């Protein structure tokens, strides 16, 4: 069977994404070969395409997918040929009909979860898992606590709204349109702010009666950084986990004292899923949230793999809400 993958030879615009024929080959020790039923689309793919993150070239992009395991290499015991599976994983290479990849981050997909849902939720859902369960202020988060979550109508964001509701948190959402704000509220945010038309830091102070929030989860980056710091309660946590609007400039450490002895972290999913054991434990938590119906995965758009450049344009133009998948 002839296989195809989306390759970039140079980092740059969406026009760099080229669908080419590839020879997938056989899995080596610790690897599997998976045939994709669906591949995920994530903002990290944009950073890897445009050069925000350096990549050895040529490269096949894509960090998330779901499909059927075709072959397993020596030493792989948690998967076998014929298993339904899904993953979020390094290295990139998911924009493909099939691929060979390390097995450690590939999990068996429960029968109740479709391939499309699997491909739409692994990277984004595992991210929300480590943010809301493990990226916490001193003393943790209790039911009723306020958190601020930017870009809350996006792929990661809509999962976070629902998961926060399940935990009893008051999630203050920001989003770039009134329609997106409505979507965040429908998915469990208790308050929503259109940060293109309103001063979100002032609104957060109003909503919290001047106290501020215990955590800001900020994936927007440079555009929201300063305002986010101003939303924190004393000893609050700034979790900067992305930079869709551009990188945050270097921070003068004295700022953290001036803002109220605050904490700053810049986490990445890939530290959290560095081992099979941690990935499995986080995955089970995610699968349980989805199987129970507490978190629904919204697939806003489906694109043919060949139309991946359009998918990138739409993602960068803030046109997509929830998740999108690529169909090989
Ligand atoms: N560190 C980690 O472990 C980790 C893991 C997964 C994802 N992330 C990050 O989380 C964020 C969300 O990822 P996602 O894949 O679910 O994407 P997404 O949220 O569906 O899309 C990004 C959203 O960011 C907002 N945005 C604000 N300013 C923007 C700008 N100048 N250009 C483009 N978008 C802008 C837009 O929403 P509005 O129109 O509502 O502003 C846009 O829809 C990304 O920054 C990603 O890198 C980090």
TrEMBL record:
SUPFAM superfamilies: GroES-like (SSF50129), NAD(P)-binding Rossmann-fold domains (SSF51735). SMART domains: PKS_ER. Keywords: NADP, Oxidoreductase. The keyword NADP applies. Residues 12-326 form the Enoyl reductase (ER) domain. Gene3D superfamilies: Medium-chain alcohol dehydrogenases, catalytic domain, NAD(P)-binding Rossmann-like Domain. GO terms for molecular function: mRNA 3'-UTR AU-rich region binding; NADPH binding; quinone reductase (NADPH) activity; zinc ion binding. PROSITE patterns: QOR_ZETA_CRYSTAL (PS01162). InterPro entries: ADH-like_C, ADH-like_N, ER, GroES-like_sf, NAD(P)-bd_dom_sf, QOR-like, Quin_OxRdtase/zeta-crystal_CS. GO terms for cellular component: cytosol. This is Quinone oxidoreductase.
């Amino acid at each position: 069977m002839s296989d195809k993958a989306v390759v970039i030879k140079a980092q740059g615009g969406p026009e760099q994404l080229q669908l080419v024929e590839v020879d997938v080959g056989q899995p080596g020790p610790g690897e599997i070969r998976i045939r994709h039923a669906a591949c995920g689309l994530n903002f990290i793919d944009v950073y890897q395409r445009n050069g925000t993150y350096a990549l050895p070239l040529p490269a096949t992009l894509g960090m998330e997918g779901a499909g059927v395991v075709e072959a397993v290499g020596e030493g792989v015991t948690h998967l076998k040929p014929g298993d339904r599976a899904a993953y979020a994983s390094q290295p990139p290479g998911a924009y493909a009909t099939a691929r060979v990849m390390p097995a450690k981050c590939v999990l068996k997909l429960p029968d109740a979860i479709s391939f499309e849902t699997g491909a739409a939720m692994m990277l984004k859902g595992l991210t929300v898992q480590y943010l809301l369960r493990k990226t916490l202020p001193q003393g943790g988060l209790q039911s009723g606590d306020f958190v601020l979550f930017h870009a809350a109508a996006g792929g990661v964001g809509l999962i976070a709204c629902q998961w926060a509701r399940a935990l009893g948190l008051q999630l203050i959402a920001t989003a770039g349109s009134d329609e997106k704000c409505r979507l965040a509220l429908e998915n469990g945010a208790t308050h929503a702010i259109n940060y293109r038309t309103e001063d979100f830091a002032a609104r957060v102070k109003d909503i919290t009666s001047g106290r501020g929030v215990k955590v800001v989860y900020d994936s927007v980056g440079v555009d929201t950084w300063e305002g986010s710091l101003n939303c924190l309660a004393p000893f609050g946590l700034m979790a900067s986990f992305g930079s869709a609007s551009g990188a945050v400039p270097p921070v003068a450490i004295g700022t953290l004292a001036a803002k109220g002895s605050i904490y700053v972290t810049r986490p990445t999913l890939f530290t959290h899923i560095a081992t099979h054991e941690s990935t499995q434990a986080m995955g089970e938590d995610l699968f349980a949230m989805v199987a129970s119906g507490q978190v629904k995965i919204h697939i806003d758009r489906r694109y043919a793999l060949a139309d991946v450049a359009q998918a990138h344009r739409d993602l960068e133009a803030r046109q997509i809400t929830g998740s999108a998948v690529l169909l090989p």
